[in-house]
Amino acid sequence: MSSNDSPNQRFSSLTASIPSFDPRQVPVVGTDAHLPAIAAAGMTPQALRQRFAQPPQWQPEVRREARFAQRQPVPASVLVPVVQREELTVLLTQRTQQLSTHSGQVAFPGGKQDPEDRDPIMTALREAQEEVGLEPSAVEVLGSLPIYETGTAFIVTPVVALISPRITLRPNPQEVADVFEVPLRFLLNPANHRRHRLQWQGMEREWFSMPYDDGGKERYIWGATAGMLRNFYRFMTA
């Protein structure tokens, strides 16, 4: 897949429109430590299987970004890979610096739907294999979260899956600078969900960030990736 094909390069649309934009410089207007955390019992493979097998009645908190692109919507998928370690983690990628847009950003493996893809799940599995070498045989698909519409008109289906810990990844060096894991309990803890707000082009833009200290290296998770994780939290606590 070429760098022009991946919605992960366009998810955080402000960076495409403001080349010097740095989301880290936008003030935090609040966090959500008042919201309930997920109990440890809910952070197990079986608990996730049960939740997706019998999903609750709920509404996603973040459905769409303010539209930037004036073009036809493009269907896409990402894989939300939950690795079955002693403590569950989420596998994420760091985009390469050589990409023309959104270089260096954190993203889920994913991309736009190809004509031969029979459904969003196939798109997510194919893209994860192409980007990081994740074999479909190591993936147990649990289900999908609600569609997330990016500001650049990508209609993204987040596919949540359990991943075998005995995986050997082969990141595509043209697209992926690094692959890393973040504890699921950190990502789904609302106390770590920072809210940001910015007035731009006559509109108020809002988004979440979830900066993670990975052994002294900051993994700055924000924009659509953070928005989909926020919906994952809401799904698990509904």
Automatic annotation (TrEMBL):
<feature type="compositionally biased region" description="Polar residues">
    <location>
        <begin position="1"/>
        <end position="18"/>
    </location>
</feature>
<keyword id="KW-0460">Magnesium</keyword>
<keyword id="KW-0378">Hydrolase</keyword>
<feature type="domain" description="Nudix hydrolase">
    <location>
        <begin position="73"/>
        <end position="203"/>
    </location>
</feature>
<dbReference type="GO" id="GO:0010945">
    <property type="term" value="F:coenzyme A diphosphatase activity"/>
</dbReference>
<dbReference type="InterPro" id="IPR045121">
    <property type="entry name" value="CoAse"/>
</dbReference>
<dbReference type="InterPro" id="IPR015797">
    <property type="entry name" value="NUDIX_hydrolase-like_dom_sf"/>
</dbReference>
<feature type="region of interest" description="Disordered">
    <location>
        <begin position="1"/>
        <end position="26"/>
    </location>
</feature>
<dbReference type="GO" id="GO:0046872">
    <property type="term" value="F:metal ion binding"/>
</dbReference>
<keyword id="KW-0479">Metal-binding</keyword>
<protein>
    <submittedName>
        <fullName>Coenzyme A pyrophosphatase</fullName>
    </submittedName>
</protein>
<dbReference type="Pfam" id="PF00293">
    <property type="entry name" value="NUDIX"/>
</dbReference>
<dbReference type="InterPro" id="IPR000086">
    <property type="entry name" value="NUDIX_hydrolase_dom"/>
</dbReference>
<keyword id="KW-0464">Manganese</keyword>
